């Protein structure tokens, strides 16, 4: 005689099947979620690596006049808006450069000296339309001829705006101390750079990245960049009225990337309505 299943046995079988289904569904969901996060993380890293490569090239393309007429706009400016290196705060750095890094080869500034200001803005905190989503941004100002008389910060047509990475939420910059760059065989990093008519030997840039998982904390990416023109900026070439000394040192300047020419005007302040690093 065949024995049938009792109601208790059927309920137990249904319970076990339900548990197995829940575990399988949860495991599958976790795998898919982690896969999506890993893919998004890889995309963010790739975009950020490209942005950091552009920033590195831009800093190494720093411009410094060799005419002996040097202003603060010719050097490196650091506004310390993130003294504790917090993930949601931002410094602002500014310098003058040559070449297509950041601006692109088709830019009107690519073949002339131009002044760059780099900082982080929060989403919705800037009047610049390009900065609506926030992130690490860069203001560029200059003229084709870049003469002091041509420069006008209030003229918005002089400005270009670039979003370097929307994945960056915080930025901190430190520089090697000018007088004592190394202390006890260690780099002597400083949070301030008061000698704004010069260029630091090295800068340490910390970019705080937005986590792809909102439950996780932001994480830092650090780059140390050496600027070739730092020595020239600390020992600028002085020219006499005939320009003899300038011609004599021309070969030495070219070897470190210097270019003859006048000093670009203007400062490292963000454009009107640009928001700035705060």
Quick recap of the structure?
With about 280 residues, the chain is of the alpha+beta class. Helices cover about 25% and strands about 20% of the residues.
Keywords:
single chain, 278 residues, alpha+beta, five-stranded antiparallel beta sheet, 25% helix, 22% strand, elongated, disordered C terminus
Describe this structure in words.
The structure is a single chain. The protein is an alpha+beta fold and 278 residues long. The protein has one domain (39-255). 25% of the residues lie in helices and 22% in strands. The chain has 4 helices and 11 strands. The protein has helices spanning 7-60, 230-234, 244-248, 250-255; strands at residues 77-79, 92-97, 114-121, 135-141, 159-165, 168-176, 182-183, 186-187, 189-190, 202-209, 219-226. Strands 1-2-3-4-5 form a 5-stranded antiparallel β-sheet, covered by helices on one side. Strands 9-6-10-11 form a 4-stranded antiparallel β-sheet, with helices on one face. A hairpin with a 2-residue loop joins strand 7 (182-183) and strand 8 (186-187). It is elongated and about 105 Å long. The protein starts with 6 loop residues before the first helix and ends in a 23-residue tail after the last helix. The relative contact order is 0.19. Mean pLDDT is 78; it is low at 144-149 and 239-278.
Q: What's the topology here?
A:
Blueprint: H1 7-60, E1 77-79, E2 92-97, E3 114-121, E4 135-141, E5 159-165, E6 168-176, E7 182-183, E8 186-187, E9 189-190, E10 202-209, E11 219-226, H2 230-234, H3 244-248, H4 250-255
Antiparallel strand pairs: 1-2, 2-3, 3-4, 4-5, 6-9, 6-10, 7-8, 10-11
